[in-house]
Design goal:
By secondary structure, the protein is an alpha+beta fold. The chain folds into 2 domains: 78 residues, no CATH class; 86 residues, no CATH class. Helices cover 37% and strands 30% of the residues. It has 5 helices and 8 strands. A hairpin with a 3-residue loop joins strand 2 and strand 3. Keywords: Membrane, Transmembrane, Transmembrane helix.
Length: 183
């Protein structure tokens, strides 16, 4: 819900100083819209069936809440973009995770479009962390000098040496990374 509030007030989270926002959520927007409309429609259909006033109000409230939750996750992808600054690169997805990688630990950040098999992408294999939210595709690869620990959304941790993620404009992300390089 915090992401929804930031979205409605047209603010972004974590963009300060020389930080450059790197949007990533445009490919998933239609899916979020369909899910939110389906949630709202479902709430309306339950209202048509007479379960009794208390159950009807409860189901309507749950339907409205689920629609708001879906919009909140989408809003989080807009207001919490990846961030590139002279200090760090932050790889984020809504409010689910925020991985901070110090610039000194990044050996290279390059553009490389890859598609990943969903069954294999769920695992942390060979020290590679895939952030595959947009149709199992990534287009940026950060190779690290030293492994970092990544906390997954449900709290499990993994140690990784490579971070693969997606940006709407990977070329601009690499250019911002190079422009803001450590002197």
């Amino acid at each position: 819900m915090a992401g929804l509030w930031l979205y409605l007030t047209r603010r972004k989270d974590g963009i300060d100083g020389d930080a450059v926002p790197v949007p990533y959520g445009s490919g998933g927007k239609p899916i979020f819209i369909v899910l939110a409309v389906a949630s709202a429609f479902e709430a309306g259909l339950f209202w048509l069936i007479d379960f009794g006033l208390v159950v009807d109000v409860l189901l309507l409230a749950l339907g409205v809440y689920s629609a708001l939750l879906v919009f909140g996750v989408y809003a989080g992808t807009v207001v919490r973009p990846h961030v590139i600054s002279s200090r760090e690169v932050r790889v984020r997805y809504s409010s689910f995770y925020d991985v901070r990688i110090p610039r000194e630990n990044i050996a290279s950040l390059r553009q490389a479009k890859e598609s990943h098999d969903p069954a294999k992408a769920k695992a942390f294999r060979d020290g590679t962390w895939l952030r595959y939210d947009n149709f199992y595709e990534t287009n940026l690869v950060a190779e690290l000098r030293e492994p970092i620990t990544v906390t997954r959304p449900l709290g499990a941790t993994e140690t990784v040496r490579v971070v693969k993620f997606q940006a709407d404009d990977p070329k601009a992300a690499v250019e911002a990374y190079e422009r803001l390089g450590v002197s």
